[in-house]
Amino acid sequence: MWCTLNSVTASRLAPLAVTLRAGEASDAPAISKLLIGASERHVLPELSAAGQAHYLAQITPEQVAAKLEQSASFRFYVAYAGDELVGVAALKENAHLYHLFTNNQHHRRGIARTLWQRVHQDALAAGNPGLFTVNASRYALPAYWRLGFLPLGPAAELNGICFVPMAIRLSSAGENHVPDAA
User: Distance of CA 88 to CAs 58, 61, 97, 177, 182, Å?
Assistant: First the structure.
């Protein structure tokens, strides 16, 4: 089955000190390069040719720049280690985690968790009631589980892209649970 997971996971590496900031239009080429590099290794192999083409069309420098300009719909965060872009997150409509990627050389170093903490704290401050969704690739499922996201249902496919819809509800006590089905 598509969503079968390998029970072997890599050990955690030493955390990497990063500087977080809001994404800017000038970051679009670097963000696109990071997204493409990570996706070529971890997302694209799972997709059909049509799915790959659709997916890649969404993360070109031009598409990333267009989303960066849509500040009412998208909020981007970038993580830098020195001058190197090592992670990116994007939140759509203050509730859907649209991107959460680290570059391939820095997985399991706390970058995604640091980005997620910033994203959800800013979203809560901007009025999100604590409900967040994400469409996880098979590769990313364990990472999202570690962050507290839980599946909403079985794997789905849209435009040739297979994903598992997941969600998290953050309570005021800091507890995570799957939201009630609507």
Answer: 15, 14, 11, 25, 30
Q: Tokens for 105, please give them.
A: 């050389």
The half-sphere exposure of 155 on its side-chain side, counting CA atoms within 13 A, is 17
Strand 96-102 to 131-136 pairing? parallel
Written as six digits, the tokens of 38 are: 């990570």
Residue 51: CB atoms within 10 A of its CB come to 18
* Angstrom distance (rounded) from CA 154 to CA 72: 31
How does strand 150-151 pair with strand 131-136? unpaired
Name the DSSP class of 174.
S
The per-residue pLDDT for 182 is 42
pLDDT band per the 50, 70, 90 thresholds, residue 172: low
Residue whose C-alpha is closest to residue 142's, from 6, 25, 2, 1:
6
Question: The whole model's pTM is what?
Answer: 0.84
Least Cα distance to 120 among 96, 88, 145 occurs for 96
Gap between the Cα atoms of 94 and 117, Å rounded: 14
Distance from C-alpha of 68 to C-alpha of 31, rounded to nearest angstrom: 10
- What CATH class has 19-177? alpha beta
Nearest to 147 by CA among 180, 179, 170: 170
Break the chain into its structural domains and give their ranges: 19-177
